[in-house]
Design a protein that fits this description.
mainly alpha, elongated, 4 helices, single chain, about 80 residues
Length: about 80
Amino acid sequence: MNIQTKKLDLIEWISKLNDTSIIDKLRQVKEDYSNSKDWWDALEKEEIESINRGLKDFEEGRIHSHETARKIYEKYI
C-alpha cells in the first residue's frame, strides 16, 4: 500500500469517526507533529561549529579514505 492510499484510508476512517476522544488524540498528534523541531535546530553551537569544520575540511580536500581510517583506528575498535 503506497502512502497516498494510506492517507486516503485514514481520511475515510476519520470522516466516519464519532468518538471525540479519538479525534482529540488525533488533534494532539497533529499539534505535536506541527510543533516538532528539525534535529538541526536542536544542536548546540559547538556541534554546529564542529560539523561546519568537517564540511570545510571536506571541501578543501583534507579527508581520508575509509580504509585509511580503519588502519589508523583499528586498535581502538
